């Protein structure tokens, strides 16, 4: 069995074991399973080359996905799973090339070595796949198999030595006279083409022109095929290299890849066919055209359309190559065959069909002359309007646009959004350009416009972009979406040139102003030790909860809930410092949380819907700022109970002239940070994991360490978010395993199942911190679990008692209600029934002031008395005739 078969076998076994696919072996293929695209049981994949899974409904569905995307965990960590052995010192490199790159090792053994690379100023080593560029092995390129993933160590490959003018060529490559040799950028690209029988060499970068290699083969009349990457750099350097080849009097052609695809990606997908190469050569001819006429000619040669529209140098041209050109070509073909028959050329043109002769003439210099003579070319726009995608808000039907990039000949493009009404006629489209794109004109006919619109609609239909009104996790796509990056199954996805993220076959774009979250910062786990020293166990519990918040919806899906976290504490205990630091770790600078006293009801509802799989932090929401409108400004946390299970944040009308309402689901987690403890119903209190910050652990040097956390920025610590999302699967694996352990550990001590579950969830998230922080040892995880069990026991005691303010109120009431020098016993209780206490709360407050005692905050007290345990509320503001005054008034009624 070859080295190629071993990784292929591992992939097949992983696919068979994955319950998502439900595949079965049939005749060299894995088949069956529900297609993610159409839902039919039509999935299939080759067992010999299991690199791309497809739907067999090629015309109606055409779904396909690289296995590297479907099983990312299988294509990572080659270092630990396949270490080198004495018998196979290149084992890690072999498996990497076979499994990750899909190459047949039997064809490329001996072309490479397994090397190592040590990062500068670091003890970190990674194995590499090393390819040599010279016989002496002084110049080489190496691909890092397990590169560091941080901002300081970007890049997945390293060079040794100067490779200017050189190429890497397959060791078995021989170049014969008249050969066509492809010049590609990467070594893996050249190997991919070698696998399909195409001679290719790697220039190693788009900017490197391999003049030394070309000079060495000057006399072989090679046709060099420039086949660089399909990105902007590849486009720019293709034209530069073509000019140099002209100066060197070398034959050349251009092969342009569509989009930003790579040759090795295309190889794994099985797309490098003769037809694909032919198409790319045609794209190369279009790309290298020096005039609009030349580009139109190449288009006509390919399609022989009598009417079409082309873009050239960001302007649009109508081309009419009608009957006259067709007749001229036909006449020329007939004349040529008749002449051949007269001359007795029985083996040549006389045997060719008219169609074949016509084609040969069209592709010759004579055909070029005939095209120029008979085809009409007219400019119809001084810009190139390029339809990018259709963008729709899932909720508001009227909020949808066709997004265009208006490309100018000599200035930067602009992006415009056009409503459907602008695409109903050439006049409306022309008006849209004038209004939205300065100096842009469209002078084509309505027929020209309809020709273009059909192409635009085809693009829009295939590129229907989801616009989300929040930042973070998009459950429907199983992806995280932020301003500059998206993450899908541990893979980082950059924003594409069209301004959205391509997640598989789906496009998505966040549409949320005012919230900025960046994931480009650095991450160094060494700060955990100082973090624990400064913020102690309550800070570590908050960090654990914060990490769990990044996966709140995945946890809720499996466990039906995710708890609330309450952080209280005395002033100066570090609440603001720790919250701001954790936000910086998640890419958000200069932010602590939402002050509910400064938000309207509508503002709160929107704030609750802004984030997904991130915390919503509510700060100091219990303050009484002395304003007269305090009643309306208080917030009842019982309104948040539905958030615990990820339910609605509150209904609002949808602006679509219908009766629809939107009740956005709560997709975040909830953190409450204030000085006083939250009061409310037992159902609310059971949902909260409460930690109290104090200064008892502060000691020498703590203040200086705390200032370090205050000084950090998104750039210095914001990579925490990126690192966590890249480790999504591993974190969830550790979390769910640890949760079962902690739930069993807490059960004998905690009677409430909900309280037990909540605290076990935070403890399990603490165990998951070990994926990111080596200092989060098993001992530290266990100690955090002990701390959280203590907090759970304290929560049980709290549920059995009253809020401290309520306890103080009843203590004060019983003191004042007893007989004093000026009042008789029971004077505050207006009840005639010994089983009932009837109070006028303002009267109690006035008595406190008369006796020199602190008066209660009645607004807050009224909310808390609703849940009194010592004396249960019977009725509030109920009319009652006082036993003392005989008059009727509204009182609060409690059981005695």
Automatic annotation (TrEMBL):
Which Pfam family is an annotated match for this chain, by its short name? Toprim_2
The family database entries (SUPFAM superfamilies) matched by this protein are listed as:
DNA primase core
- Annotated PROSITE patterns: TOPRIM (PS50880)
Where is the Toprim domain positioned along the sequence? 179-258
Q: Which domain of life is it from?
A: Bacteria
Q: Known InterPro entries for this protein?
A: DnaG_primase, TOPRIM_DnaG/twinkle, TOPRIM_dom
Any one GO cellular component localisation term in the record: cytoplasm
| CDD domains for the chain | TOPRIM_primases
One Gene Ontology biological process: DNA replication, synthesis of primer
Instruction: Please name the PANTHER family in this protein's record.
Output: DNA PRIMASE
What protein name applies here?
Toprim domain-containing protein
Species:
Desulfovibrio subterraneus
């Amino acid at each position: 069995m070859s080295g190629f078969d071993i990784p292929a076998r591992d992939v097949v076994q992983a696919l068979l074991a994955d319950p998502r696919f439900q595949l079965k072996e049939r005749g060299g293929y894995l088949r069956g399973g529900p297609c993610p695209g159409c839902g039919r049981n039509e999935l299939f994949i080759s067992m010999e080359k299991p690199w791309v899974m497809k739907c067999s409904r090629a015309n109606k569905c055409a779904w396909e996905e690289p296995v590297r995307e479907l099983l990312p965990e299988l294509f990572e960590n080659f270092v630990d799973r396949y270490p080198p052995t004495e018998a196979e010192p290149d084992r890690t490199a072999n498996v990497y090339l076979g499994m990750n790159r899909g190459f047949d090792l039997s064809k490329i053994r001996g072309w490479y070595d397994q090397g190592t690379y040590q990062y500068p100023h670091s003890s970190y080593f990674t194995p590499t796949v090393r390819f040599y560029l010279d016989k002496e092995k002084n110049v080489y390129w190496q691909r890092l198999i397990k590169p560091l993933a941080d901002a300081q160590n970007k890049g997945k490959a390293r060079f040794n030595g100067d490779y200017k003018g050189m190429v890497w060529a397959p060791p078995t490559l021989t170049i014969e006279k008249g050969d066509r040799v492809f010049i590609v950028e990467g070594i893996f690209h050249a190997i991919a083409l070698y696998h399909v029988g195409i001679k290719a060499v790697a220039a190693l970068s788009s900017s490197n022109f391999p003049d030394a290699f070309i000079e060495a083969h000057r006399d072989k009349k090679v046709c060099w095929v420039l086949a660089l990457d399909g990105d902007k750099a590849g486009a720019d350097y293709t034209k530069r290299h073509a000019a140099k080849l002209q100066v060197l009097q070398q034959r050349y052609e251009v092969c342009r890849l569509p989009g930003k695809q790579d040759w090795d990606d295309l190889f794994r997908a099985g797309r490098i066919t003769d037809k694909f190469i032919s198409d790319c050569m045609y794209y190369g001819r279009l790309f290298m055209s020096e005039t609009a006429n030349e580009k139109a000619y190449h288009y006509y040669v390919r399609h022989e359309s009598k009417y079409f529209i082309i873009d050239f140098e960001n302007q649009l041209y109508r081309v009419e190559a009608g009957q006259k050109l067709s007749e001229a070509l036909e006449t020329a073909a007939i004349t040529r065959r008749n002449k051949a028959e007269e001359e007795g050329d029985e083996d040549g043109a006389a045997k060719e069909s008219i169609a074949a002769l016509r084609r040969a003439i069209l592709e010759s210099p004579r055909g070029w002359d005939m095209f120029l003579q008979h085809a009409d070319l007219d400019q119809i726009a001084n810009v190139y309007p390029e339809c990018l995608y259709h963008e729709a808000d899932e909720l508001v039907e009227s909020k949808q646009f066709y997004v265009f990039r208006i490309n100018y000949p000599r200035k930067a493009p602009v992006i415009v959004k056009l409503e459907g009404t602008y695409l109903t006629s050439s006049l409306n489209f022309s008006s849209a350009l004038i209004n939205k794109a300065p100096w842009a004109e469209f002078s084509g006919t309505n027929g020209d416009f309809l020709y273009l619109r059909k192409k635009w609609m085809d693009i829009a239909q295939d590129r229907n972009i989801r616009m989300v009104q929040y930042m973070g996790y998009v459950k429907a796509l199983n992806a995280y979406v932020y301003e500059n990056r998206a993450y899908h199954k541990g893979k980082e996805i950059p924003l594409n040139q069209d301004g959205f993220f391509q997640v598989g076959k789906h496009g998505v774009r966040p549409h949320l102003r005012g919230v900025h979250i960046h994931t480009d910062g650095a991450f160094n786990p060494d700060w955990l030790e100082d973090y624990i020293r400064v913020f102690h166990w309550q800070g570590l519990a908050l960090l654990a909860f914060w990490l769990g918040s990044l996966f709140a919806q995945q946890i809720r899906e499996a466990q039906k809930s995710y708890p609330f976290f309450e952080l209280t504490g005395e002033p100066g205990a570090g609440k603001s410092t720790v919250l701001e630091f954790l936000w910086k770790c998640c890419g958000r600078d200069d932010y602590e949380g939402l002050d509910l006293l400064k938000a309207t009801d509508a503002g709160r509802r929107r704030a609750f819907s802004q984030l997904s799989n991130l915390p919503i932090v509510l700060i100091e929401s219990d303050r009484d700022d002395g304003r007269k409108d305090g009643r309306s400004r208080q917030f009842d946390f019982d309104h948040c109970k539905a958030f615990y299970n990820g339910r609605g944040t509150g209904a609002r009308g949808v602006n679509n002239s219908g009766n629809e309402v939107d009740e956005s689901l709560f997709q975040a987690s909830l953190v409450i940070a204030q000085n006083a403890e939250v009061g409310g119903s037992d159902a609310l209190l059971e949902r909260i994991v409460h930690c109290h910050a104090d200064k008892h652990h502060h000691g020498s040097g703590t203040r200086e360490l705390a200032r370090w956390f205050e000084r950090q920025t998104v750039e210095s610590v914001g990579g925490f978010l990126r690192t966590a999302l890249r480790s999504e699967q591993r974190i969830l694996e550790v979390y769910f395993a640890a949760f079962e352990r902690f739930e069993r550990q807490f059960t004998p001590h905690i009677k409430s199942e909900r309280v037990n579950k909540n605290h076990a969830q935070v403890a399990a998230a603490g165990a998951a911190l070990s994926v990111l922080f080596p200092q989060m040892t098993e001992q530290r995880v266990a100690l955090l679990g002990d701390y959280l069990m203590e907090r759970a026991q304290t929560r049980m005691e709290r549920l059995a008692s009253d809020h401290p303010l309520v306890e103080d109120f009843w203590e004060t009431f019983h003191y004042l209600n007893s007989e004093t020098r000026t009042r008789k016993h029971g004077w505050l209780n207006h009840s005639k029934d010994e089983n009932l206490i009837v109070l006028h709360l303002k009267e109690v407050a006035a008595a406190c002031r008369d006796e020199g005692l602190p008066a209660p905050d009645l607004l807050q007290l009224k909310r808390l008395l609703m849940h009194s345990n010592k004396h249960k509320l019977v009725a509030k503001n109920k009319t009652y005739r006082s036993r003392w005054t005989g008059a009727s008034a509204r009182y609060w009624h409690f059981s005695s």
